[in-house]
Amino acid sequence: MAKNVLHIISSPRGEASVTRKLGDEIIGKIKAKYPDTVVKERDLAAEVFPHLDELQIGSWFAPDAARTPVQIEAIQVSDQAIREMQEADIYVIGAPFYNFAIPSTLKAYLDHIARPGITFRYNEEGKPEGLLKNKKAYIATASSGVYSEGPFQSFDYVSPYLKFMLGFLGITDISFFRAEGLRIEGVKETAFEKSVQSISIV
Ligand SMILES: Cc1cc2nc3c(=O)[nH]c(=O)nc-3n(C[C@H](O)[C@H](O)[C@H](O)COP(=O)(O)O)c2cc1C
Q1: Which of 54, 58, 147, 191 has the fewest CB atoms within 10 Å distance of its CB?
Q2: Angstrom distance (rounded) from CA 56 to CA 83
Q3: Atom from ligand 1 closest to the CA of residue 16
Q4: Contact 123, 95 (CB under 8 A)
Q5: Is 161 a pocket residue for ligand 1 (Cβ < 6 Å)?
Q6: What is the pTM of this model?
Q7: Segments forming the whole domain that contains residue 73
Q8: DSSP letter at 107?
């Protein structure tokens, strides 16, 4: 079965990036399962999404026919990013720990994806409904510390946030793979290998 994979990279460290390498390993396993897989890369370090400003938010809420030429130009960034998300069946998202959370480049990107009426809406009962349906997300995280267990577990604002935010957009089938403890003696030596071993494609 052919699958469209969108690889979202948020580390600026190029080939040295652990999340990029782990993402590539995940994609290798997806390809082994679905040989006709097509991969598209969205490198958030190479092409940084702008923080939302008044112009962009204004362009979202202006009726189609009423948008000014400047608003039409401004909304392209978000429209194009959402189109890519809609076209993909599977997301592979590289999410390094940056100060206990996701990099701001990834947050800025998600801010362009979360659009009322397009990727989410509130139903008649006021309940949120995500509109990116039937998708699968694999998240590749990397961190100096260990967050899956132990004293730092409650300082993990990466996995709860992504789980909630992607779920809000309709993406509820999510698997996390963690390369963690990359600066801890006795852990770092096998951290990446262990994260690769933990990958399972469903
Ligand atoms: C600006 C910055 C902030 C970081 N913050 C954390 C952190 O809060 N917790 C942690 O365990 N590691 C932290 N790290 C370490 C990175 O998560 C780690 O180096 C990881 O491998 C980065 O992902 P990458 O290799 O894909 O670039 C930080 C690194 C940088 C550069």
Answers
A1: 54
A2: 17
A3: 25
A4: no
A5: no
A6: 0.97
A7: 4-197
A8: H
